[in-house]
Design goal:
- The chain is an alpha/beta fold.
- Helices cover 38% and strands 24% of the residues.
- The chain has a seven-stranded mixed sheet with strand order 5-4-13-14-15-12-16. It has a six-stranded mixed sheet with strand order 7-2-1-11-18-17, with helices on both faces.
- Helix 1 packs parallel to helix 5, helix 1 runs parallel beside helix 10 and helix 10 runs antiparallel to helix 11.
- The protein starts with 7 loop residues before the first strand and ends with a helix.
- Bound molecules: flavin-adenine dinucleotide.
- Flavin-adenine dinucleotide binds next to helix 1, strand 3, helix 9 and helix 10.
């Protein structure tokens, strides 16, 4: 494959950006990651990753390093937040590994980031640059320039925008606005496991689903830490408050919740709040030498815990296509968009339905619980197989359709 002298620019050093850099760098392609924060790192909470991400980790050469930092929970339990009853569960132990060939894991985001960073640092073709905020791009025909807030124009053969939910590159590429607030907010906390007083399943993932609110919790770092996420609907989602105000709001919102949930909330640090935003799927994420990736392309509600998994799949798929394109970057990016569009759009759309499903009330809650109770382990696996069976990576660039070849010939 002919090597371009100019590097591929990756805007954003989050999970998607570092995975992209690693996937491209391992193919010997020069990469420059431009990250706005002074230090490349992650916010310190947990993350769940499904079995579909493991073939990607194999491509990235980080499976063992990831597993060394991970916990393999026995189940993801869904509990009714009012009664405390277990409604259904995804078995995430041996039967899931047998069905989907790879494990389901939870780990600290900081640890995931370190594994990605260490792997990137071991690849000479990858340059990691912090304190570099990209404000836009300029298509220069035979290359693209990333424009930084310091007035620099960094030229590259391609620009991959992995700059997250509020991507500036997306705003320029699509003329897009801010993500749509859905009226929910999240609070996240990690506490030492030995301070957990609530009567909970400490080695599993649990999702307590209630009317307009939920809590997710799971263990981290060899069971020494306990990660809690509380999510709820509030009319104050766009306002800034302080911990005391947030506390009063949570106590009111969760007043009917099961006593175990009250105990979980009592352990939470409420200093920081994340308003939850959503985006509609869009058909076009690339133009010429610029493409969006991860949340910048297809941000999703976290109902399936798949946002980061999709970013990692994007990264490996994109690198495969760039590797196959024989220097034709615009063709590689078009094929990348086509390969990823429907899968990621389905995640976005079904995450919305699942969000509703978690938060129903009244008779809809009774129907949900009754339906879920009837599901067998295999029924649950069948619902998830479109996600967990993963993707087939491209091994050749798709050939143009005959009709398109004819119309192209007619046009020329
Ligand atoms: C509460 C919650 C729980 C979640 N749980 C899960 C889960 O369990 N499993 C899962 O798979 N997903 C989960 N997700 C989704 C997951 O966090 C995201 O999908 C994932 O982080 C997207 O990665 P990204 O690299 O695309 O974007 P980001 O992680 O947002 O990274 C973007 C990076 O770009 C940088 N950046 C932004 N703008 C610029 C700029 N102009 N110039 C330079 N750099 C810039 C940022 O500093 C950041 O480092 C969850 C999300 C939330 C909110």
């Amino acid at each position: 494959m002919p090597r371009s002298e100019k590097p591929i620019l990756v805007v954003g050093g989050g999970i998607g950006g570092l995975s992209t850099a690693l996937a491209l760098g391992r193919k010997g392609l020069p990469v420059r990651v431009l990250e706005q924060t002074p230090e490349l790192g992650a916010i310190g909470y947990g993350i769940q990753l499904g079995p579909n991400v493991f073939p990607m980790f194999d491509r990235l050469g980080i499976r063992d390093a990831i597993l060394a930092e991970s916990i393999l929970p026995g189940a993801c339990r869904m509990l009714d937040a009012l009664s405390g009853e277990e409604i259904t569960r995804v078995a995430t132990g041996p039967s899931l590994r047998q069905r989907f060939h790879h494990p389901y894991i939870v780990l600290h985001r900081v640890d995931l980031h370190h594994v990605l960073l260490d792997a990137c640092r071991a690849v000479p073709a990858i340059a990691l640059e912090s304190s570099t905020t990209v404000t836009g791009f300029e298509d220069r025909g035979d290359c693209v320039a990333a424009l930084t807030e310091h007035g620099e124009a960094v030229e590259g053969a391609a620009l991959i925008a992995a700059d997250g939910l509020r991507s500036r590159i997306r705003a320029q590429l699509l003329g897009d606005t801010e993500p749509r607030p859905i009226g929910y907010v999240a609070h996240r906390t990690i506490v030492p496991m030995d301070t957990v007083t609530a009567d909970v399943h400490r080695s599993d993932v649990a999702l307590w689903a209630g009317p307009g609110f939920h809590i997710v919790h799971y263990p981290l770092r060899h069971g020494t830490l306990f990660n809690i996420v509380a999510v709820f609907r509030t009319s104050t989602h766009a306002e800034k408050g302080d911990a005391a105000r947030y506390r009063a709001e949570l106590e009111h919102t969760y007043r009917a919740a099961h006593p175990t949930m009250q105990a979980l909330l009592a352990m939470m640090d409420l200093e920081r709040r994340w308003p939850i935003g959503d985006r509609d799927p869009v058909r076009h994420w690339c133009r010429g030498r610029v493409a969006l990736l991860g949340d910048a392309a297809h941000a999703t509600l976290q109902s399936f815990a798949q946002g980061a998994c999709m970013a990692i799949e994007d990264a490996v798929c994109l690198a495969e296509l760039v590797g196959l394109a024989d220097g034709d970057i615009p063709a590689a990016l078009r094929h990348y968009q086509a390969a990823r569009l429907l899968r990621t759009a389905r995640i976005q759309l079904e995450s919305r339905s699942m969000w509703e499903f978690y938060h129903v009330e009244g008779i809809a809650r009774d129907v949900r619980n009754d339906t879920c109770r009837r599901w067998s382990e295999q029924d649950v696996f069948r619902c998830l197989e479109w996600i967990y069976d993963g993707i087939t990576l491209p091994t050749a660039l798709p050939r143009p359709e005959p009709a398109r070849r004819e119309s192209a010939a007619a046009a020329s």
